[in-house]
Amino acid sequence: MTGQKITGSNQFEIDHLGIAVRSLDAALIFYREQLGLPVTPRETVEQEKVNVIMLPAGGPRIELLEATGPDSVIAKFIEKRGEGLHHIALKVPDLGATVERLKTHGARLLNEPRAGAGGHLYVFVHPSSTGGVLLELIQE
Ligand code: ZN
Asked: Is the pLDDT of residue 1 over 70?
């Protein structure tokens, strides 16, 4: 490996791409029926007010996100911008160390690490720090 040596830098990996949709059932007509991707069971993440379906696509997955209510961040996102790419999720080897490093450099984090779908830890980094894309950092 070449490049800058930050501990574990070769262990970063795209985990999933999060897509905000109005309806999981409607989205599955395309992704499952027409495209033919496999589908994992639907899961509800109460604290984010979303229903989630993961579609394995090689290593990374596509995450379909549907709001569970009008006050969900996904509902607000769709209201403002319509359906579409909502975030990119990057797996990191040591979330605590990454969060500390980002805080030191003034990156804008939207939450402290907490457990999400599947029990993994995650934080969101605001688009103002990442080049305009909401970035989810996760550690399994
Ligand atoms: Zn996600």
From this structure: no
